[in-house]
């Protein structure tokens, strides 16, 4: 019995030493051994092979059954505006057929709408050998099944324990590290050490996700005294960005492990955590952000102006708060490659732990980060217009659809005012003398 | 249907829906996945709230009436079968459907059924007549607070006057059809479903 226990302990210590030497140590220096690159290259090959197999398999199926859908688009929406659709040839006056326009719009929204689908995971065109994506892929071939089983074994029996080990090391060292650094008197040494701890721990955590991150245009990296705004897919966005430079985080205070991390890090670096009661107080938030910006020695602030996680296919409305402050804005676009795992956190369906478990049992997190040229508010531009301009730039760069809707719709109902806006447009058409106004404004 | 929302659609069900609505196999499976994603209660049926959660529908001035069309009298749940039956009104009329099959029942997406669907949006009390009040209600929904009662009243009066042929100060379905004679109902009341 003791021998077994001894062997187990030896194995465990060997495991930790290996993890430490191969992963933690390189993280401190920001070096890489190229293991994850190799892993990804093999993975890409396997997935390519699987795609070919599946295509072959479905072609066989097609003969007897139905064509598999290659995309999940159900309808082609009619983009005609209300003016065009209703007014047509006439100007003014109500007609019984005017309801047709609203009916059609309504039914199109029922079949397929722009907003709600962004709050659920993106569906893939081809299966990536993970069970949870694409329910409708069934048994295709023996070889594919064997590969899938091997994949499950590798992911759950090797990768998962390794990743949990790393994540634990990462989280513990950020808590211990920042607490220790926090004891130092304020000054350059403290800031330098704080940055080092943040960077190292994020590198470890990125490795815990098998993250492969491609940073583009690093000359545009956010500078001190600025605000970095990015599109938001998941809490791990923070790790992805901090892996390449330190930020001052802004957010709501949490409980649990997150709370412990937040309380520790704030000792070393001036992150801005708000109590739940404070976050609603816009003036207070703006004031604290302004104070931070005023000091040009402080790290750039990182903000996700969408305010909620979107499934990485679109960018939704940017809340104007961060654009009112008057600081230089550094836009960042983050695009995950869904082939290797779904990075989106569907917070209404999964809690953070089961989300992390899903991430850690996926193949990898592969993503691109684009640093866009810094922008400032132009003369005569209000905060909303400025926010929209930045949003468009991020959407364009990341290849994401730009939506005027508010991400808050994930939980809240749409405001009555937007219906009123539609009614106003329509009213103008039937009593006005054909004067048309633009029908597309911000919705949210 | 009740408790088997998460399971896949049975083949015979698909066949039945296909026959009833004219949707293709892949359209039905795709619409089924849409149906289940709207079904937040995960009980195989949709409630009014499930519909109202679609923001683009919630801002539609006639959103409530459209949602209503999915629910038979007195019911507050609709299953996939019923959902598809209502959606079928908006299926475009295909070329091979134009030559009318005299034997079978009229397809749900025929011009007349499309018109009937629109008519029922107005005819709240289902007496097969659009009264002045019913017309005013729909008008009010579409214009909100932007037009005065007086103005709206005269719009309603004019509309009824133009349509009314038998002098009962209401619009019957036949009169409704007559007014919309020249309107391209087939195009305006159809959604381009992909195959």
TrEMBL record, chain A:
SMART domains: PlsC (SM00563). It is a multi-pass membrane protein. InterPro entries: LPCAT1-like, Plipid/glycerol_acylTrfase. It is found in: Endoplasmic reticulum membrane. The keyword Lipid biosynthesis applies. GO terms for molecular function: glycerol-3-phosphate O-acyltransferase activity. One of its GO terms (cellular component) is endoplasmic reticulum membrane. One of its GO terms (biological process) is triglyceride biosynthetic process. Pathway: Glycerolipid metabolism; triacylglycerol biosynthesis; Lipid metabolism; Phospholipid metabolism; CDP-diacylglycerol biosynthesis; CDP-diacylglycerol from sn-glycerol 3-phosphate: step 1/3. It holds the Pfam family Acyltransferase. SUPFAM superfamilies: Glycerol-3-phosphate (1)-acyltransferase (SSF69593). Residues 226-337 form the Phospholipid/glycerol acyltransferase domain. Keywords: Acyltransferase, Endoplasmic reticulum, Lipid biosynthesis, Lipid metabolism, Membrane, Phospholipid biosynthesis, Phospholipid metabolism, Transferase, Transmembrane, Transmembrane helix. Its main location: endoplasmic reticulum. The chain crosses the membrane at residues 137-158, 165-184. Belongs to the 1-acyl-sn-glycerol-3-phosphate acyltransferase family. This is Glycerol-3-phosphate acyltransferase 3. It comes from Python bivittatus (Burmese python).
TrEMBL record, chain B:
The keyword Nucleotide-binding does not apply. One of its GO terms (molecular function) is calcium-dependent protein binding. Belongs to the calcineurin regulatory subunit family. CHP subfamily. This is Calcineurin like EF-hand protein 1. InterPro entries: Calcineurin_B_homologous, EF-hand-dom_pair, EF_Hand_1_Ca_BS, EF_hand_dom. It is found in: Cell membrane; Cytoplasm; Nucleus. Residues 26-61, 110-145, 151-186 form the EF-hand domain. Its main location: membrane. The gene is CHP1.
